[in-house]
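Handout, page 2. Input:
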Amino acid sequence: MAVKVYKKNTAGRRGMSIIKPENLTDEKPEKSLLALLNRKSGRSHGKISIRHRGSGAKRRYRLVDFKMDKLDVAGVVKTIEKDPNRNALIALVNYIDGDRRYVLATVGMKKGSMIITGEKVSIEDGNRTTLKNIPVGTVVSNVEMIPGKGGQTARSAGTGLVVQAIDGAMAHLKMPSGEIRMVRKECYATIGQVSNFEYSSMRIGKAGRRRHMGWRPAVRGSAMNPVDHPHGGGEGCQPIGLKYPKTPWGKPALGVKTRKKKKYSDRLIIKRRGKK
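Output:
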C-alpha cells in the first residue's frame, strides 16, 4: 500500500494524493456481477431530501456477497479490484464448484489466496466462521448482527472489530469507536481487517475531483442571508451570534444526540463509545 502525492504544479495539485494498493490487479470487472445503479441525485419525488448530492461519473454497482454463505466450499482469489461504490477493495473469488462472487478484501489478501467459509476452518485472514469459533483477541470484519442476515458492521476501509469475550450465548465485540456490544455467537464474521486502511489519508485536492465522486458544493450558513439560514447576515465575516449552531431549519446541530432514547438494541450495549 502506498500513497502517491502529486507535485505542486497547480493549486489543485497542491497536496493532492491517491492510494496505490500494491496487490491491485489490472483486469476488467466481472460482467455477470455488475448491475445498473439508478441514482436519484439525493431527491425523493423530485424534492431534495439529501443535500449536496448529484452529478458524478457514471458507474455500475458491483454485487458484493456480504453473506458468504457457501459453506465448506473453498475459493481462490482471482482479482483484487477497486470498487467505485465503496472505499474498501473487493476480491473476485472463484469457487471450486464454478461459482464466482465478489467479497470484501481483507488486509494481506492477494491474487491466488485461498478462502473458505464454515464452522471448522483455520483461523487465517479471509476465512469466515462463527464468532464462537474465533479466539479472543482476534480482529474480525463484515460481522453479522443477526444470524443469517449477512455482514452489517465493519465493512468500510481499514475497519475491524476485536473479539473480547464469549459469554454464554453472546460474543462481546469492541467497535472502532470504543463501544462494546454483544452479538449472538452464532453470527458469522470474516477474520482480518478490511483492506485499504490508508484510504483516510487520501487528500482529494480539488473541487472537480469531488464532483466526479458525486458530491455537489456545500455553502457555509454564515455566508448566506438571514432569510436562507439561521447563521446568515451581518456585515463582513461575523460569528453566528447564537449559543449553539443550528441547521438550516433551526434545529440544534453539532453534539446533539440522534439515537432513540429507548432503542431495542440498548440492552446489547455493554459500554458506550467515549467522547472524542
